Each structure stands twice: as structure tokens, then as C-alpha cells.
From TrEMBL:
Residues 1-85, 305-324 are annotated as: Disordered. SMART domains: A1pp. Residues 72-81 have a biased composition (Acidic residues). Residues 51-71, 315-324 have a biased composition (Basic and acidic residues). This is BZ3500_MvSof-1268-A1-R1_Chr4-2g06910 protein.
């Protein structure tokens, strides 16, 4: 079992195979939403369902050992007929080009230059994360890793009892850290179980460092296991009380830093003098509940971290062509 970790004043070092991470500078999750709120009543997703900003907005059973994650999968007879591939979900480029995602600031809050490659990697989606056919989905778990309410419970139910069987020997997970398991009956190959902080207004810095640790350690495991697609659910944005706007900025900032600076992102692959390495292709931020889509003012932060390229922005000053 491989784990990943981040340093924090309130967390202790655990297993020696943890990947140490240093909290970065401050973020609102596109946020994947609600890790710990009720998930059972969500509508069945469709391939075209996307977070409406304008409204405001393989897994295959195998006996082969892979990355040390092998367990017996007596219940891995999942039906992928309702699975959604990341290629079916609109990425930022598409959302900008269609005018669904708009820049609503004056440019003063933009933290990063535009990067068309990044915008093709990032997607926003509203629906049930357990239907996504990606290399890994992120489960906003509790410290026990034995399942709970909301998305955590939904993931355990969809994955089947063998997920719980694999989680029991892990002996839980500390806040700000992540552990990886197989996906079992899920369409996703793996599950990244990360434990977000309970938000404290009295110690916002510590809450932020722990939340950043969740994203850092998830992305570290994505790189370690050579995963090319990952979907994030909301971390700490449900009953754990993390303000959605602030959580979204953390998510956006950590993912942007990963894509800009990590060799697993696109930057290192620009040099023709070195062999091309495996590379992340899809990062999906999910919203589970309709209320989150209807109230997603936090999406205004997306252009601050992933601004549109000039070719992605609609020119409203242009007169429509005759006969168009």
C-alpha cells in the first residue's frame, strides 16, 4: 500500500513510505463538492452534463499485481454501460469557446498566464463521481477509511465490499494525507482516499495547509502510479465546513502548480532533448449536488488560475456574418 503525506504543525509523520509535501501558498474548489454530504439522491449522470457556469453556472478485473495494489476481487463484475469517460466531458477550452465559462474579473486577480495545454486537461462536471471511467477518483474520506456518509458512502457502495476489505488493513489515514486502493466494482481503476480538515475559523492557516496537503498527496500518487486521468470530489466542503470559495482556490492553485512545475505535467515535456515521460491527460473537478451547481459563484475563480487563451475567447464585438 502506498501513501502520500504533507507536513503540518498538527499532523504526525506516519509510515516511512509516505511522500513528504510542503504546503504551498494560498485557493475555491471548482470545487469538486461535497465530500461528506448526502449523495444518495443525485440524478443519474449523462455524458453531456457539465457544470453550467452561465446559469451560475478501465476498470478491468485482473489477477495481475499492479503497483502493489493487488487484492482478491470476488465482486468485480461491474457494469460499465453507464460509465462516463473524461473525453466525453467538456474541458475549459470548450467551455470558454462556447461562452459557458466567462471571465468575470478585470484581470487584476489573474494569478497565472494562459496555457492552452492546461485548459485542454481541466474539465468541470456535475454528476455522480462513481460513474467516471478514469484512472482514479478522489474520495473525501474520514480518518477511518471505512466509509461514511455522502460521497464517501456512495463510493464504498458502488465499489462493493472488497473495497472495505482492502481498506481495513490500512489502519486509517491522517488528515492532509492520501492512500490509494483499487477501484473494485467502480469504472475507475483506483480510488485515492484523502482526509480533509474540519475547517477552523480560528486557525485558517492550518486548515489551508491541511487542505493543500490533500491535493498535493493526491497528485503525488497520481505521478507515482503513472495515472493519466483523475477526478476530484469536494474535499472538506460539506459538513467539514470549508468555505466553498476558499476551497476552490486551494484546488485550482495546487493543480496549476502541479501542471506548471512537476515533471509529470506538461512543462517538462516541452524539451526535445529528453525522452517524453508519461503525462497527465485529464483532471476533472466534479460537483455532486444540483445546489452546488446553482450556487457555484466559486467558478469565477477558474479564469484566475486557468485564464482563456486568446483563441478561446468569443469576440462579442464582431458582427455576425451575413447568412449565418
Amino acid at each position: 500500500m502506498t501513501t502520500a503525506s504533507t507536513s503540518s504543525s498538527s499532523t504526525k509523520r506516519s509510515q516511512t513510505d509516505d511522500v513528504g509535501q510542503t504546503p504551498a501558498e494560498p485557493l475555491e474548489s471548482i470545487a469538486p463538492t461535497d465530500s461528506h454530504a448526502a449523495a444518495e439522491t443525485a440524478d443519474k449522470p449523462s455524458a453531456s452534463k457539465v457544470a453550467k457556469v452561465d446559469k451560475h453556472p478501465e476498470h478491468e478485473a485482473t489477477e495481475e499485481k499492479q503497483d502493489g495494489l493487488h487484492v482478491e476481487d470476488e465482486d468485480e463484475d461491474e457494469d460499465d454501460s453507464n460509465a462516463i469517460a473524461p473525453s466525453q466531458i467538456a474541458n475549459l477550452t470548450k467551455l470558454y469557446e462556447d461562452g459557458i465559462l466567462e471571465v468575470v474579473n478585470d484581470g487584476e486577480t489573474v494569478h497565472h498566464p494562459c496555457n492552452a495545454t492546461h485548459n485542454k486537461i481541466i474539465s468541470l462536471w456535475q454528476g455522480d463521481i462513481t460513474h467516471l471511467k478514469v484512472d482514479a477518483i478522489v474520495n473525501a474520506a474520514n480518518n477511518s477509511l471505512l466509509g461514511g456518509g455522502g460521497v464517501d458512502g456512495a463510493i464504498h457502495r458502488a465499489a462493493g465490499p472488497s473495497l472495505l476489505k482492502e481498506c481495513r488493513p490500512l489502519k486509517g489515514c491522517e488528515t492532509g494525507r492520501t492512500k490509494i486502493t483499487k477501484g473494485h466494482r467502480l469504472p475507475s481503476k483506483h480510488v485515492l482516499h484523502t482526509v480533509g480538515p474540519i475547517y477552523s475559523r480560528n486557525d485558517r492557516q492550518e486548515s489551508e495547509e491541511l487542505l493543500r496537503g490533500c491535493y498535493k498527496t493526491c497528485l503525488a500518487l497520481v505521478k507515482e502510479h503513472a495515472l493519466t486521468s483523475v477526478a476530484f470530489s469536494g474535499i472538506s466542503t460539506g459538513v467539514y465546513g470549508y468555505p466553498l470559495s476558499e476551497a476552490a482556490q486551494v484546488a485550482l492553485d495546487e493543480v496549476r502548480q502541479f501542471l506548471d512545475n512537476d515533471e509529470y505535467g506538461s512543462k517538462a515535456n516541452l524539451s526535445p532533448l529528453r525522452p517524453r515521460i508519461a503525462q497527465i491527460k485529464h483532471i476533472v473537478f466534479t460537483n455532486f449536488r444540483q445546489i452546488d451547481v446553482d450556487q457555484c459563484k466559486h467558478l469565477r475563480h477558474v479564469p484566475d488560475y486557468f485564464p482563456p487563451a486568446p483563441s478561446e475567447v468569443q469576440d462579442e464585438s464582431k458582427e455576425p456574418e451575413e447568412g449565418a
